[in-house]
Write a structure and sequence with these properties.
heterodimer; A: 154 residues; mainly alpha; B: globular
Chain lengths: 154, 502
């Protein structure tokens, strides 16, 4: 059995339980919908936990189906997953800190060079062209103000 | 009525801006459809930053055209390399690839591109025909029915998208509903779950939530896998336009099959959550069953290419019906499209039939004209666009990350949305990794506010007796039937479950 799914069930249970507890503090009309949804959802999460436990027990007893092929995600992909996540979170952090015009080319350059094995010069060129097009299209042509960052460099 | 119908067509054809936008959408849709790893969902997510400030009709036409064209170009890799771009194209491989191996790749491509275009147009026509039929039905629904329809929509999608794990689908649907309660309560004015964060007083941004649940997890997955079709040899290098033309002519030669499978595809598309792969496989099976020589299928029968292609594209027209008139997207791609429609100011619901019928007709014509454009362009360039199937997925990841962040920021011009994007992406990725369905979340989030208002109105008018209204009883019976069937199916011994998310 995929144990990760049980963790997801527990996370969902925690989310629903927290939201229902918070809703207790609202006036009756405001908490009506959160209760209508949240209480049955807590019941469903508990039911899913029971189903997960049943599946785990069957697996221990050797009654579950044997996996035919390696799963798409697992320990073998953990490092690659973490790396991709790191790029994503760092990019959003960089957008917040320094703005789109700085974060976008840095992400494109580093990712293409390190992950897609593109030559640094080509990656830099792609990053520069993309940033120029983004700036011209959104800021000049459409007149949008893209997030400049809390510590803008330009 | 006729004025609205043909006024929308005239408005589309006589406006150079609209035609230019559609041409752009067709080209973009073709390129994205051929490129591995980018499906219809991501292409719309990428296009969201460009629709801000656009006119309502222009933006909707642009996005729908692009979404519709995605499927038309997606089958090229299926035929040339035997590798389906997505679930919709898997049925095409069965006969398309053997045809390519026999040196008839151009014939198979000609037939599939034409069939796909014809399917898309017939799907739009089926939708158009159903509008006057359904109008009185949709308009007769009261708040009680709308609340129950919201529950039915979530149950239906949870059932179809989760297979034997319906409970997971229901939990995710409930999570969407719960999230829709974030923000100012419509009755008391209390800010629920928002604290002092002003941005949350208007609720969670639909675009941010949808991007976080679908686009970001798909990109993270692509970055992890780095998929590319490169390395798979082509089945054949022979390609001639004479052969391509013979393939095109196969569709009128099998017009009765094309018409039947298009109508089946459109009807399947109307059922939320069933998706294009179900339509394609259903129609492939229909083609085999109705053939006098079923033994040819799987070895290069041209009907085996025509049937799934017409069906998978015809379903786009059908899925517009629940999306526009009930706010229940027919698929996860349609869910993102729905989010984009809301940004443009299109509020789905029965009011679309009364106040915005011109927009509905513009969308129908966009499907027809867009498919015509796509077929014409693809027949000319299909020989060369196959090169895109060799693109390494990792080359696209950083660019799409930027587009996702732009779409999320521009949704409300708030940097806080980027923080919410990261938080929700963690949950979206966890759901994807644990094989939980994500489509019910979007339905819950979209229908949540309607469900809450409808429930309160129904209780005010009828009290708890609203459950006993005739239509309510039918809807409740349908919900119970779905749940009962899911329990029965889960308890039955299974051989080879294959359910995937719609």
């Amino acid at each position: 059995m995929n144990r990760f799914t049980t963790w997801v069930t527990l996370a969902m249970l925690a989310i629903f339980a927290t939201m229902v507890v918070i809703a207790w503090g609202y006036p009756p009309r405001a908490r009506f919908m959160p209760f209508v949804v949240g209480l049955p959802a807590i019941g469903l999460c508990l039911l899913q936990l029971v189903l997960d436990l049943g599946a785990a027990r069957r697996e221990r007893l050797g009654e579950g189906p044997a996996p035919l092929e390696e799963e798409e995600f697992g320990r073998h992909t953990a490092w690659a997953e973490l790396r991709t996540w790191a790029y994503f979170v760092a990019f959003i952090g960089a957008v917040l800190a320094f703005g789109f015009v700085v974060a976008a080319p840095v992400l494109i350059l580093v990712y293409l060079w390190r992950e897609a094995q593109v030559r640094p010069l080509i990656a830099a060129g792609a990053a520069a062209v993309f940033t120029l097009v983004m700036h011209l299209m959104f800021e000049r042509l459409l007149g949008f103000v893209l997030h400049p960052g809390f510590w803008p460099l330009f | 009525m006729l004025e609205t119908i043909f006024g929308a067509l005239f408005g589309l054809l006589s406006s150079p801006t609209m035609m230019g936008l559609m041409l752009l959408a067709v080209i973009f849709g073709i390129l994205v459809g051929v490129t591995p790893g980018i499906g219809g969902k991501l292409s719309i997510a990428m296009a969201i930053p460009f629709i801000y400030g656009m006119d309502m009709v222009a933006g909707a036409v642009f996005l729908l055209t692009m979404h519709a064209v995605n499927g038309t170009s997606g089958q090229i890799a299926s035929i040339m390399f035997g590798i389906p771009g997505d679930g919709d194209d898997a049925a095409t491989v069965l006969d398309g690839y053997p045809l390519a191996k026999q040196g008839q790749a151009a014939r198979a491509l000609g037939a599939s591109i034409t069939a796909s275009g014809v399917g898309g147009m017939i799907g739009a026509v089926v939708f158009a025909i159903l509008i006057p039929v359904l109008k009185p039905v949709v308009l007769s629904f009261s708040p009680a029915e709308f609340f129950l329809i919201a529950l039915l929509g979530i149950t239906f999608i949870a059932f179809l998208a989760s297979g034997p794990n319906m409970v997971k689908g229901l939990i995710v649907g409930a999570w969407g509903l719960m999230l829709s309660t974030v923000g100012m309560d419509p009755f008391t004015g209390i800010a629920r779950y928002s604290g002092d964060i002003l941005i949350l007083w208007d609720g969670v941004s639909l675009v941010t939530a949808v991007l976080a649940m679908f686009a970001v997890p798909e990109m993270l997955s692509l970055g992890t896998r780095g998929t590319a079709i490169a390395g798979t040899p082509r089945a054949s290098d022979t390609f001639s336009y004479r052969q391509l033309l013979s393939g095109v002519l196969e569709v009128p030669r099998h017009w009765w099959l094309a018409l039947r499978t298009s109508v089946i595809g459109a009807v399947v598309g109307m059922i939320p959550g069933l998706g294009g792969s179900a339509a394609a496989w259903l129609c492939y099976g229909h083609a085999v069953q109705s053939s006098k020589t079923p033994e040819r299928f799987g070895k290069g029968a041209i009907e085996g290419v025509i049937a799934p292609e017409t069906a998978s594209n015809a379903k786009e027209g059908g899925s517009l019906l629940p999306t526009l008139f009930f706010g229940i997207p027919g698929s996860s791609g349609m869910a993102i499209l729905l989010g984009a429609f809301i940004i443009l100011g299109i509020q789905p619901g029965p009011n679309m039939m009364v106040a915005h019928l011109d927009v509905v007709w513009s969308l129908i014509w966009a499907l027809v004209v867009g498919n015509l454009m796509a077929v014409t362009i693809l027949l000319v360039i299909c020989r060369w666009v196959t090169v895109l199937t060799f693109v390494n997925g990792r080359l696209l990841v950083p660019f799409i990350f930027v587009f996702i962040a732009l779409g999320c920021f521009l949704a409300e011009f708030n940097w806080q949305n980027l923080v919410i994007l990261v938080l929700f992406s963690a949950l979206g990725y966890a759901l994807m990794r644990a094989n939980w369905p994500r489509a019910p979340f979007v339905i819950g989030l979209i229908l949540g506010s309607t469900a809450e208002v409808s429930l309160n109105q129904a209780l005010k008018i009828w009290g708890y007796g609203f459950f006993l209204r005739p239509v309510s009883l039918v809807l409740i019976a349908m919900i119970i039937a779905i749940v009962a069937y899911a329990i029965w199916r889960a308890g039955r011994p299974r051989a080879g479950e294959f359910r995937k998310e719609a």
